[in-house]
Amino acid sequence: MASPTPLPLDPIAEAKRQWIAHGWADSADAMAAYSSVMRAHQLMYSRVDAVLKPLGLSYARLELLRLLSFTRGGALPMASASARLQVHPTSVTSVVDRLEKDGMVRREAHPTDGRATLVVLSDLGRVLVEKATTVLNEEVFASPGIPAEELRTMTSILARFRRDCGDFTDPAPTPDPL
């Protein structure tokens, strides 16, 4: 996604300048922020994709494998995976279809809920998710291109934005022990 050679000016800064020049100054900062986040997403996704593609994974496939690996038994109902990944059930079905075809997961009937299907991490999937996570940590997350303190600030700002948009709620405080 990155340009082969850097542009001689920041197109988002130029768009902001144009926004102001056209009488939309009250919206210029938000337009620039939204545009910056979307462009940053493209740049970040490109880095992640370049690392995962040689392993035969997309970020969506990695997310599902990683989610399953975090569970006690390596299994989760498909509906729970959809909710935790914050994607439509159809998207989870599509990812599971591809992972199942590659032997990374399998579907099983839920032992107590006849309506539910479990997606279960296979041994092959467990090996691949560990390898992919190691490579991703080494090649992307260890050197993200943003200083650690700024990463924490950025994450905090974006979490607040996400929460305020209804993406999640803060957990209730844990009561003090008696």
From TrEMBL:
GO terms for biological process: response to stress. It comes from the Bacteria. PROSITE patterns: HTH_MARR_2. Pfam families: MarR. Transmembrane segments: none annotated. Gene3D superfamilies: Winged helix-like DNA-binding domain superfamily/Winged helix DNA-binding domain. One of its GO terms (molecular function) is DNA-binding transcription factor activity. SUPFAM superfamilies: Winged helix' DNA-binding domain. SMART domains: HTH_MARR. PANTHER family: TRANSCRIPTIONAL REGULATOR, MARR FAMILY, TRANSCRIPTIONAL REPRESSOR MPRA. This is MarR family transcriptional regulator.
